[in-house]
Write a structure and sequence with these properties.
- A 7-stranded parallel sheet has the order 4-3-2-1-5-6-7, with helices on both faces.
- It is α/β, with parallel strands linked by helices.
- Helix 3 links the parallel strand 3 and strand 4.
């Protein structure tokens, strides 16, 4: 993997461990020569993961919609900042630039980004690993909900198994590097999205 997209909150959350782990993830990616693709902001966990990578001389590409430039405050020290028009264009560009996705704690926006990426994988539009860095059990309830979707017949186990989960950065990256996408028939083509 040469590039990983990280989706995460524009806030720090209520526990210092979220910022610490976001910073450490950025540092780890840089040390492994993996380019960071992220939302382009200088605030919250977004800023922390970027700063972690930049402090280790990593390459960091931000993708930010014009209308969020003032709200999320564009990071000034990135390798590259790509400005786009819409949130959908942002996700599409971030997907195009990466070899895998990691989700850190965040709010509605983070969940929306995560679910779109895993849905695209489920539909066979990409075969990239999707990982959740489950810091301090942040995503435990979501993971239980996904299992409930399987148990109640709304999600196939093979699609549940596409989701890689760990509380450890190194373990998650190892799972992602060894990931093999299931052979899922394409229901729609990328051009139809």
């Amino acid at each position: 993997m040469k590039s990983i997209t990280v989706f995460c909150g524009s806030s720090f959350g209520s526990d210092d461990i979220y910022k610490e782990q976001a910073t450490l993830l950025g540092k780890t990616l840089a040390k492994q020569d993996i380019q960071l693709i992220y939302g382009g902001a200088d605030v919250g966990l977004m800023g922390a993961v970027a700063d972690g990578a930049l402090n280790e001389n990593g390459k960091v590409i931000g993708v930010l919609p014009h209308f969020l430039q003032s709200k999320e405050i564009a990071h000034k020290n990135l390798t590259d900042l790509i400005l786009v028009e819409t949130m959908h264009e942002r996700k599409t560009k971030m997907n195009d630039l990466c070899d895998g996705v990691i989700v850190l704690p965040g709010g509605y926006g983070t969940l929306e980004e995560f679910f779109e990426m895993i849905t695209w994988a489920q539909l066979g539009l990409h075969k990239k690993p999707i990982g959740i860095l489950n810091i301090n059990g942040f995503y435990d309830d979501l993971i239980r909900l996904v299992q409930t979707m399987v148990d109640k017949g709304f999600l196939k186990q093979v699609n549940r198994d596409m989701l890689l989960i760990s509380g450890s950065i190194d373990e998650l990256l190892e799972k992602m590097k060894n990931y093999e996408a299931p052979t899922v028939g394409k229901w729609i083509s990328k051009e139809e999205v």
